[in-house]
Design a protein that fits this description.
By secondary structure, the protein is of the alpha/beta class. The protein is built from 10 helices and 13 strands. The strands form 4 sheets. A 5-stranded mixed beta sheet has the order 1-7-6-4-5, sandwiched between helices. Bound molecules: oxa(dethia)-CoA.
């Protein structure tokens, strides 16, 4: 039986680390460290330097993941990038990254599912590996949200950060370890509660992010609870079988609610939102890289990933390490 297995994760964060206080000062925002920490758990974020592209960040994360996995450019036959902030409308950011990494075979494309992007990309890569279309995929989440934030909207601009994460996913003849399931969902009727207003196909420009935070929060709690149940049920697993929760990092209150739902001790929930803020499609692979660097995952551990974001889109991925 062929399964796809995450061999390693890697990450990249821009060098400009901005605390809540520094952000308020830099953009002249009527906010406070206290409000941001209490409502979201965010203490700081990284912001891309002028000229630092999504593809450059994605390539850096991929290099890190490849080095940890012991994989060479010649081994990779698929580059799949989840991003809502591509370098340009086309070509895909994935082909830019492919070229920057010196990969000359296989295929490369982008996936857009906002904050659920990494789960979508992992699902597509897993399907392609199991069907034999690819053997070794780089699955990357890379974002430069600082370029689509409205820096006069304190309700949204304090919540996001830039960065990239990546995993190496490889075909293995192994029935036990690897991606066990993925479940994807979307409901386009809810598109406008978290969206970018404008873009190349509507206004012609680059739009700005708009979020009805309270609405999104409400959907996040119910929809993530239901995908968690769906993943457990599909695999015949119980809550106590989950060793680690690696959630999308949007808000500590949502993350803690999911940890509680699973009956997990707080140290079993991987949290980076305090340090990275919400890096959208990059948040789960960055959290995986963070957890791996800390030596958290042991072979055989069941790791549950879940995310919700613009679309609305939401989903889960369950893996046995
Ligand atoms: O990654 C995709 C998924 N995204 C999410 O999951 C985000 C989901 N939503 C959230 O995380 C939360 O809704 C937020 C963190 C965005 C907001 O927290 P909240 O507890 O829902 O606050 P709120 O939007 O209801 O705002 C409460 C108050 C408002 O004032 P009034 O109307 O009560 O007087 C806001 O104007 O806080 C005010 N406020 C702020 N105050 C200081 C909003 N933003 C700020 C700010 N600083 N930055």
């Amino acid at each position: 039986m062929i399964r796809s297995r995450i061999l390693a994760a890697g990450g990249y964060l821009p060098s400009d680390l901005v605390t809540n206080e520094a952000l308020a000062q830099r953009y002249n925002l009527d906010t406070s460290d206290e409000w941001i920490v209490e409502r979201s758990g965010i203490r700081q974020r990284h912001i891309a330097a002028p000229g630092e592209t999504t593809s450059a960040m994605g390539a850096a994360a991929a290099r890190d993941a490849m080095a940890r996995a012991g994989i060479l450019p010649a081994d990779v036959d698929a580059v799949i990038v989840a991003t809502a902030t591509p370098d340009s409308s086309f070509p895909a950011t994935a082909v830019r990254i492919q070229a920057q990494l010196g990969i000359t075979q296989g295929f490369a494309f982008d996936i857009l599912a906002a904050c659920t992007g990494f789960v979508y990309a992992l699902s597509v890569a897993d399907s392609m590996i199991r069907s034999g279309s690819a053997r070794c995929a780089l699955v990357i989440g890379a974002e430069a949200y600082s370029r689509i934030l409205d820096w006069t909207d304190r309700a949204s601009c304090v919540l996001f950060g830039d960065g990239a994460g990546a995993v190496v996913l490889r075909a293995e003849a192994d029935a036990e370890h690897g991606i066990l399931s993925t479940h994807l969902h979307a409901d386009g009727r809810l598109a406008d509660i978290l969206h970018v207003e404008g873009g190349p196909g509507s206004t012609g420009g680059t739009g700005l992010l708009r979020m009805a935070g309270r609405e999104v929060f409400k959907h996040a709690v119910t929809k993530l609870a239901s995908v968690v149940d769906e993943a457990l049920e599909a695999n015949g697993l119980a809550r106590h079988d989950i060793a680690w929760l690696v959630p999308h990092q949007a808000n500590i209150r949502i993350i803690e609610a999911m940890g509680k739902k699973l009956g997990l001790a707080p140290e079993r929930v991987v949290v980076t939102v305090d340090r990275h803020a919400n890096t959208s499609a990059a948040s789960i692979p960055l959290a995986l890289a963070d957890a791996e660097a800390a030596g958290k995952f042991q072979r055989g551990d069941v790791v549950l990933m879940e995310a919700i974001g613009g679309g609305l889109t939401w989903g889960s991925a369950l893996a046995r390490w």
